[in-house]
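We emphasize that the prediction below concerns an isolated chain of 552 residues; any contacts that depend on oligomerization or on bound cofactors are therefore not represented. The input was used exactly as deposited, without trimming of termini.
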Amino acid sequence: MRFLRVLLSSLVFLPVMAFADMWTDIQNEIRNTYEERTLYLRETFNSSPKVYCQDGESICWYVHDRSRLFPVPKREPVSQEKVEFPNWGEVKVIFKHQYLGKGEILFCLADVKPEKMLETFHKVFGYAFAAAAEDDFEPFVGNSESKMVHFVGCNHLSPPGNRVSFKTVEAATEQGYEKCSLCFNNIPRMPDYDFEMLIGREVAAKVRYYYSVNGDDEVNKRVQTIGNQVLQNWPTPLRGYTYGFQVLNSDVCNAFACPGGAIFITTGLLNTFESDEEIEATLAHEITHVERRHGLRQYKKAQSRAFWAGLASIAAGAAVSAKTKDVTTGYVVADFIATISALATQIALAGYSRDNERESDFYAIAYLKKKNDNVAMAKLLRKLQYSSNLRGILDRDESTSSSTKSSLSGWADTGNNGNAMNTFATHPDIGERIKTALNAQFQIFPEDCLFTGYNDAGEVMAQARIESQCLSEGKLKLFITIQTTAAMLKEQKIKSGKLFFGGREYKLDNKEDTVVYPNDEVGCTFEAEVSEMVPGIEGITLVFGDVKKWEK
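Result of the prediction step, given as a token string:
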């Protein structure tokens, strides 16, 4: 009996040993092939961090971690630093980009037959990385029956006999294929995007509460068409929001931008326009509010650190509440929803901050000057000024009484019968804005005007993209988008910095003292002690956290 027990245990143990030896051999082969190599991280084809690879009957997949290296619009050279094997059939590849920091991809091959695991890994690894800047990889696959083209890394490809591979989407559409609405649905990959969209929906609901939507299809179609033209000619890369433009019934001259891309303009303002350029000026101003994420920035600035710490646990808390019927968690969620609603009302009624309004004016001016139009913005603002005058609303320098102050949101004339005083608190004088429209100088920097911040250990902490500069009334402003990595570890305030050009250095001041978090993205406006446009930026330093040096 004892011999039989030993024999049976051996029969069970031997296959386990064989699998373990095989897995060890696979690990050694993968390490020898890929570790400490320089490869190219492939461009991101859609917004899904999970990519599938169908090899015969087996489907394996890999997942990008959240970092500055997902998504990437083009192939990027990276060095493979380390390969780890967390569990059976799992391979974690850790890699590093010179300026974008570290990234990780976890490959899962647990459902692949052991004897095919190495072959399959090489195949799926080729979906993520390339050995050269150019190769023969074909990332799109058409279904010859349905005539629909998919991303090769989706999980719903047609049977192998119906597949036709393409190197570009254009090659597929030229042959009559239609793009799959799932594979080509590029949801923007930005920090707090879902939350920003939630705020946007609440703001849009508040706007529709105060105003009715105009039912004239031709009028709405005209505004939508002009809005699309503005987007097509936008002076900086768009973030990927889905825009919609609607007309509201109101005699009040106004326009609104909701976080996420819903933009409204009133009939009162629309009826004053004598050219499409004036509509373009208005929509360009509102688009800037969306692209520079003014709603999210204003919302974050208004909230406490405790609010943002609690936000991360709201979804989990709601799930726990549903399972445990914990009334306390339910109250927290209800309070959170009430807070969003209240602040959505604030954005709809009080609009954006004075600095945000100036920033939107600057980008609208830049858009129009790109079209060699130097008058439409000033003309629009003069009409808003006169509309306000008719309602007894004056600029600060014209007003002799604190009672003649305007009320509602996006622009200067918000009328509402002198119902509130919010606009004077948050918006620049319209006279000042007209002067800016006529005299400001604005320049968009090339996309590669990037600076990377490192800590003492050489880890990438942040990247600053200098988008544009504006000189108005002898003051220079720099508009900078800052993206941070997980290496930053905790929240920081961005207060100041230095600008280097012409062999000299100049102080930078961020009046907002913007708060930034790990793996975050924020827009900042810095004032520089310079009274002229900067011909070429040689360097910058931004002071926050453990960032010790900046390199272009």
